[in-house]
Amino acid sequence: MSINVEGVVISQSTVFMLTKGESIFFLKLNDGRSESTILMPLKKINYSCFLDQNIKITNLKEATLFKSSTSSQQVLQFTKQSAIQESSTQISQSNVRDCSSLISFKGIVTGIHDTEKKIYVLDKKVYLFLCLLPNHPEIHLGDNVSIRNAHITSFLNKKCLVVCGASSCRVNGALALSNQEETNSSIFSNLVLQNSYSWGELVVIYENFKRIEILTDKRSDCKEILKLVSENKQGRDILSEKELFCFNLLTIQNRYISS
């Protein structure tokens, strides 16, 4: 059975690359009463900005993500017969019911806290973590950044926005993305993504990661460092079990990169 939906686009995810080389992204539509999440194949649809547009999508089918997990999710999937058109029913933003706790923010990049791990400062008062995005626009000092659907927490006694896969990031008004095939994820990003840490754990993991980097030489032999830590009471007190796990992955990956 085909399904048609229409409404205002309140969320547009980043682009995800699948194992077969295909790329997808997600749109979330709100019709003033409920929300629908649509899986969009990049091959059939250009990754242009749909945010805040009133659109209608026809001939969708139901699909289930993460079927084998305990957190399966029902979505609607774009098909070969699907089409996007401007909706004849215009829904005002004031009539859209906010169904999430995510927030939006606009600001100017006033600082770069950590280039490798994609952490920036907006308006001298808000940290922005882009570590969880598989790709994002290039960001430079002075750029105008618009974040949609970010999580909020704290970092170094300031507000901190954590951008996840459901978020969108526009730089100087554009959603232009870096080339995913040429983008090298940092060791820290790989650590977070491969171990499925939640956005809430991200800041804590980052703080531990930085402490490990300060305490150790990245290219030191893992066994030698672990021996030093096991023989040193101060080392045991400083490094928690999770930190030791992080360090193990850090040294193993660095050794692989260096070889």
SSE map:
Blueprint: E1 3-12, E2 16-17, E3 23-30, E4 35-41, E5 54-65, E6 73-77, E7 83-86, E8 103-114, E9 119-122, E10 126-129, E11 144-155, E12 158-162, E13 168-171, H1 187-194, H2 199-215, H3 222-231, H4 233-238, H5 241-258
Parallel strand pairs: 4-6, 10-12
Antiparallel strand pairs: 1-3, 1-5, 2-3, 3-4, 5-6, 5-7, 8-9, 8-11, 9-10, 11-12, 11-13
What report would you give on this structure?
By secondary structure, this protein is α+β, with helices and mostly antiparallel strands. It folds into three domains: 3-95, Nucleic acid-binding proteins (OB fold (Dihydrolipoamide Acetyltransferase, E2P)); 103-171, OB fold (Dihydrolipoamide Acetyltransferase, E2P); 187-258. Helices cover 23% and strands 34% of the residues. The protein has five helices and 13 strands. The protein has helices at residues 187-194, 199-215, 222-231, 233-238, 241-258; strands at residues 3-12, 16-17, 23-30, 35-41, 54-65, 73-77, 83-86, 103-114, 119-122, 126-129, 144-155, 158-162, 168-171. The strands form two sheets. The protein has a five-stranded mixed barrel. It has a five-stranded mixed barrel with strand order 8-9-10-12-11. A hairpin with a 3-residue loop joins strand 9 and strand 10 (126-129). It is globular. Residues 178-184, 218-222, 232-239 and 255-259 have low confidence and may be disordered.
Question: What labels describe this entry?
Answer:
single chain; 259 residues; alpha+beta; OB fold (Dihydrolipoamide Acetyltransferase, E2P); 3 domains; five-stranded mixed barrel; 5 helices; 23% helix; disordered C terminus
